[in-house]
Every structure is written in C-alpha cells, then in structure tokens.
Amino acid sequence: MTHPLVDRSAASLHRYEEHALGHAGAGAPPLGEAGMAAVAPANERLDTSIPIILLGGRENTVAMVRNFGRLGVRVYVSGSRGCRAMRSRYCRGSFAVPGGTSAREYWRDLLTVRLRHSLAGAVVIANCDESMAFLASHDAELRPFYRLEEFSPALRLAMLDKFETLKLAQAAGLPTPRFWRMDRELEVADIQDELSFPLMVKPLDTARFSAQFGRKLFIVESGIGEVEDKVALCRAHGHAVMLVEMIPGPDKVLSSYYTYRTDTGRFLYDYTKTVVRRWPVNRGGATLHRTKQCPETARLGRQLFQRIGWAGIANVEFKRDARDGKLKIIEVNGRFTAAHRLVTESGAPIDLAVYCHLTGQRLPAFSTNYRRLRLWYPLQDLLALRDLRRRGELSLREWLRSITRERILLPYFSMRDPLPGLEDFAALLGRAVVRLLRPRSHVVEQPTKAGNP
After folding, report:
1. Which of 29, 268, 312, 317 could join 330 in a cystine, given CB atoms 3.0 to 4.6 angstroms apart?
2. Rounded to whole angstroms, how far apart are CA atoms 5 and 12?
C-alpha cells in the first residue's frame, strides 16, 4: 500500500532518474545543472555576516561551532546540560535551557521574543530530535523571521516516528526489517509465531523515551515473556512502541548516506561513511567510524529521499542483511549526526553548503577524494574490544591496527578549543565512578530523570 506522504507517480520517478547519481560514489565532485547547486569559484569570498543559531545536539554541534567560528560566522547555541558546544571558544553566545524547563517552551520564548529582533534573519539549525520537532511544530511562526531549511512539517514529524519511518521506506520501495506496531489492541501473544530473536522493543518517539529510560530502546535476546514485560513497562509510562527484528551481521556492515535535498528536488551534496565498531556490540552507539565511498548506499539513500519528497538535511543508515545480502534501513535523521566532525574534516563541508544555500550563496567546493579518517570514542571502544575478544571476534592486534592505520579524530577534543572535550571527559569519568561505587543488585528498570536535547 502506498503511504500518503510518498509520491510514486511516473513524474516523480522520472525526476528521480534525472537527478540520479551521475558518478561512481560519494567521493565525486558535486554535479552542476544536473540536479545539484552550482559551486563557488575558489576565489569567491564567503559572506559571513549572517549569524547561525544551533539548537540542541552534542558532538555534532561542537563540530559545527568550530567550523563556523573559524570562518568568522557568529554562532549562537542553545541546549540543555550536556550540550558541550556552549563551552566552545567559538560560541558567540549561549542560552542554556534551565533545569526542569521544557526545551521546546524555552526555545519558543527565545526565538519569538528574546532574539526575534537582535538575530532576525539568522540561520536556525536543529541538531537533535527535540529541536527538529520544535521547528516543525512552529514553522509558520518562525519562518517569517529566520532562515530555516525547506521542509514539510508533516513529513518531518512523521520521520521522527520510527514506525512511520519504516512505513515510508516500504512505500518508497526500499528493504526494511520486519516490524510490528504494538497498538493497545494488539498483544505480543497475537504475533508470537511471527517473531524472531533477538528483537528490539523500540519507541515511536525516541527523544521522550530516552529522557525517561536513559536509552533508545530495549533489546530482548529470547523469551516471549520478556517481550511482554518490556511492552507493558513502556505502555505503563505512556510510550507507544513497536517490535523490530534485529538484522543479523557485524557492525562493520553499517553504512550511512548524507545529503540535503531542496524543495525543488536538487541534491546539494552526497556523502557516505561506514561504522567499524559499536558498543554495546551490534546495538549501541558507534565507537569507531570511517570514511568510505559506498555507491549502493548513496543510490538507495537518494531513492528514499526523492520518492518520499523529503526536503532539508537528510541522513539514512543501512545495514547489509547477512541472510539475503540486501541493504536495509536502520534509521533516518533529518539533521547532522554525531559523526559530523569526520564528515567535514574529510573534505565534505556539508554544514557550510547548507549555510550557503540558505543565505543565497554558491556552494563551497567539495574534495574529489575524501581524506581517509576515523572518528574514535576511546573508552567506549575499549569496552567493545573487551566484548569482542570474549566472543573471539577481535584480537588486540587487529584492534590496534584499526585505530592506527588512518588518522584518528576525537568527537569532542581539540587542542585549539579544549573546554568541550575536557567537560565531556569529566562527565564520562564521573559516570564511571558512580557505576563502580554503585552496589551490584537486581534493579527493576525505572525511568530516569529527563535527558538532554
């Protein structure tokens, strides 16, 4: 069945073919008139007079503040505790969301009252799910005063719903894992014969779920009873959830595609990368990313965003299914991601491309051969090494080679701008000490305090 937000008309598919990749992969230069914006000559001076406001985010926001600050663009940041970019030397002004205050309510007051005149005309970028939902919900109110991405608020909000994301992908003709929405009238016992393990109990609204439980999802290795318990726990706290099969295969078969699609169907850039490891293994956040050209990932990513009519910043992650060899959608983001420093330092200034587009300037030149870099989370990757060695899947020698064969970047730390990295390290160390001192006992999972955008 065709999803109501997906355009599968012949005209749409023809436009997709016209804008399809005209090069071998993400490392080729941007296309000219064939669906891509023109690139500025090397001697053209960048107009940095228009400020930019970044809402929420973590390492992605830190990378952006540094990128724009070094260029002379005035950068302002608003986020909750954990938004390290507010400590950067390149941050011209910070607006911390007070504890116990709704970030969305704070941002509405900030942008519609406090900054409406002093920063009128600024570019505003959402760097987390909560700020994406905020901009989509208040688009009509904010767009007359600020430069926002082109986007459909309805589609943007739909893609924040994980169930709608997979439905849209299916309607666009892309492979997905199997999934089931656990509506109140559907019980786990009704579909137990269809389920396979391990299985994810995944919230439709990740931001709200993470704020309560301190994690993005629950994973059940086996047992219908545990699935029922997790679904009941989520329902008890008002979270709509779905069950999603876990795609088999190692973390190294994950790949991502980055682009920006305008409301007229132009793609401003193409970029791909892969993951080397995650922790927890096969389910957690990436501990080692690497630059890599992935033509199939780029082709499917373009197909998705073209067919659903997406506009604005876009990222999609795929995993190759070991059972049938197909790339299947894992996650879609309408924002810059945690690997932003890797992307931009490898020669793809995607944030600057968006800034130039929204301020009416020609795009910066992209490298034709991206630098071979890796983005590394040392402490988390040591935990990944520990677990993979226990499973016999990684030796110490192989691990050392993986972090020494190409130049390594750290997500937060920079000698020229040390405070964000130092603050993050202190917080990480504090959490580790608390865990070490915490008595080992069986704890029933309960919601945690509100998280951070």
Report:
1. 317
2. 13
User: Which tokens is 92 given?
Assistant: 């011209």
Tokens of 95: 């607006």
- Nearest Cα neighbor of 71 from 51, 53, 57, 100 is 51
Strand order in the sheet with 241-245: 179-181, 241-245, 199-203, 218-220
> Tokens standing for 84?
């390290």
Strand residue runs (E) in 206-352: 218-220, 241-245, 254-261, 267-279, 285-291, 312-320, 327-333
In tens, the pLDDT along 370-390 reads 999 999 999 999 999 999 999
SS (H, E, C) 222-237: CCHHHHHHHHHHHHHC
Separation in Å, CA 94 to CA 234, 319, 354: 35, 37, 22
Rounded to 5 degrees, what are φ and ψ at 256?
-130, 150
Q: What is the pLDDT of residues 139-189, one digit of tens each?
A: 999 999 999 999 999 999 999 999 999 999 999 999 999 999 998 889 999
> d(Cα 210, Cα 215) in Å, to the nearest integer?
5
